[in-house]
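Reopening this one. Same input as before:
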Amino acid sequence: QVRLVESGGGLVQPGGSLTLACRPSEAIFSIFAMGWYRQVPGKQRELVAFKSKGGNTTYADSVKGRFTISRDNAKSTASLQMNNMKPEDTGVYYCHAEGLLIRSADEEHDYWGPGTQVTVSS
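Same output, byte for byte:
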C-alpha cells in the first residue's frame, strides 16, 4: 500500500523559514506532478505550489516570491522551501501526488499525504 510521507512542519515566527518534504513510502515508477495544498478550519483546501515531472510550476499568488517548490524525479520526492513566512501561511499542509504510477503496467492514481501542521506565530 503506497502512501505519501510528509516531514518538516512545525512552529515558526513571522519572517522565518520552514522546509516541507514529501516522498512515497516505497519505490514507485513515476509521478506526473507533485505539490502542496493547505487548509485552515472552515475554509477550502487551496493550492500552494505544484510542479510537474517536466518542470512546469504553479504557485498561489499569495506565496509567489516567498515559496519555492523543487522535485527530485529519480527519488520521486518534492520539497517546499517557505521563506519570509506570514501568519496567514498557517494551516495544515498536504502533499499531493497526481498521476502516481506504482509500476509501468498499472493505472495512474492520485494520492494525498496525511497533512502536517504549519504554524506561523510570534
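So the earlier flakiness isn't reproducible anymore. For the record, The chain is about 0% helix and 55% strand.
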